[in-house]
Design brief:
- The protein contains three helices and three strands; from the N terminus they run H-H-E-E-E-H.
- With about 80 residues, the protein is α+β, with helices and mostly antiparallel strands.
- The chain has one domain: Metal Transport, Frataxin, Chain A, CATH 3.30.920.
- Strands 1-2-3 form a three-stranded antiparallel sheet, covered by helices on one side.
- A hairpin with a 4-residue loop joins strand 1 and strand 2.
- The relative contact order is 0.24.
Length: about 80
């Protein structure tokens, strides 16, 4: 999954549940926010993401945001 997040060109259509599972596998703590918000804490960093809806897959912008967060948290392939 990490390879899909960091693939070039940026991929869309990655299932959000797979991204959440990746966060957990990396040691992140997830908590529910309001509505579709998910708070993620990893390696001292915090971010808030929005679960895609009604579809279950991410768009390119969301993948870029996840990639940026993981890079700042020093997680990369």
């Amino acid at each position: 999954m990490l390879d899909a997040i960091f693939a070039e060109p940026v991929q869309a259509g990655i299932p959000w549940r797979d991204i959440e599972a990746l966060f957990v596998a990396c040691g992140a703590e997830l908590s529910e926010g309001q509505g579709s918000r998910v708070r993620v804490a990893l390696n001292g960093l915090r971010a808030v993401f929005h679960r895609p809806h009604p579809q279950k897959e991410t768009d390119k912008g969301a993948v870029k945001s996840v990639r940026r967060f993981l890079t700042e948290a020093e997680v990369w392939p």
